[in-house]
Amino acid sequence: MLKYNYKSLQAFLLSLIAMRYLLHFTPIVGYSDFYANSAKAITFISMLIYFNHLKQLNFKKQPFEEIILITIMFFFVFVFVVKFDLINFASYMAFMWSMFLIVTSSREILNLAFGYFRTIFVITLIPSILLYPLIATGLSPVGEIVPIHEIKEQLGWYYKNYLFSFQLIDYFHQDGALFYRMSGLFDEAGVVGTFSALFLIVDRYSKNMTNAILIAAGFLSFSFAFYVMTLIYFLFSLKISKILAAALFALPLFFVLQSNSFVQERLLDRFSVSEGKFAGDNRANEEFDRAYTNFIDSSQIWMGVENQDSYAMGAASWKNLLWDYGIIGSTLLLLFFVLYATSNVKGDLKLYWPFLAIFALNIYQRPHVFDPAYVLIFASGIAYIAVNHHTKQPSPVALRT
Questions:
Q1: What is d(CA 11, CA 401) in angstroms, rounded to the nearest whole number?
Q2: Quick check: is 339 in a domain?
Q3: What is d(CA 267, CA 226) in angstroms, rounded to the nearest whole number?
Q4: Minimal CA–CA distance to 283: which of 242, 308, 311?
Q5: What is the pLDDT of residues 34-59, one digit of tens each?
Q6: CA dist., res. 52 & res. 47, Å (int)
Q7: How far apart are CA 296 and CA 248, in angstroms?
């Protein structure tokens, strides 16, 4: 029992680390010394809890792929993360230590971490779901929050603060609309949609209360990514009969929602194709596209652009990888995930490929995946599939009905 509790503690810590990076936006984290202090705390506590874990690591017996994987991870952080000078020493150590712990954790610990991570994520969404009808019908906020990211502030965006939920006021917002994009405690609705979809895909949309909450949150986020990722999963994972049944169920809902101008403009119209691409593809802008055209013809293409973060330019697509890290860095980053998958995917590949393929596609719209939150859902998702979908065991730490 003590051994199990120790592993549970390790898994719970990993989930807290991931949530800390996901919740970097919130005022208590983003606008105080809490962010830097939490980095120090994570480093210190992690070292204490994982002291025994580190003693048990035997690199002489580690597979060749894992040695290369860890080497790439350290090299990538030293060369390509530090070059932007975006983090202080404490934050750098917390980041590096967190990534190392995730990559070297056992399948058992990562399987538990998936459950904890998902449950904590869901708990943060519940207040926002309950508040949704009140906010949509005019509930007054307690204040406003200025965005951390300069590009959002320059565009005049801000957040309405409802204490347990934030509403981003951007070009998607319409006063008096029946619907709005729910972003929970995160910096934008896309985070809610993306992580909800990934959690659901790993668990294959199993029928339990946890997944019901994730579906509701993903739907209310009106995240283009959530709908596309969900659509792709069902198209390739279900039998034709089930797809037709789902279509018959969704068709009446489609016509009901189509009459609402917000849903029509901000969701349904984004599936239309214009000039050879989805209208919902808003991951870049004209300024960045012009700069990117000049960039690919320059010598910076190999190592990326120095001291000019592409995200600060208002872009968030696969082009960010080349801009920030160049061909060399982008190759190493993708190789990191490929090597981890090849080292840890065991058994029937058909059980894993929907999650792996959709995670890879997700990089198109969220390229900054070298982050403890994304690495944990990737690693723990693989572990969860290996443990639960092979053995048919019940989902760990799930709010089952």
A1: 24
A2: yes
A3: 11
A4: 311
A5: 555 665 666 666 666 666 565 555 55
A6: 9
A7: 46
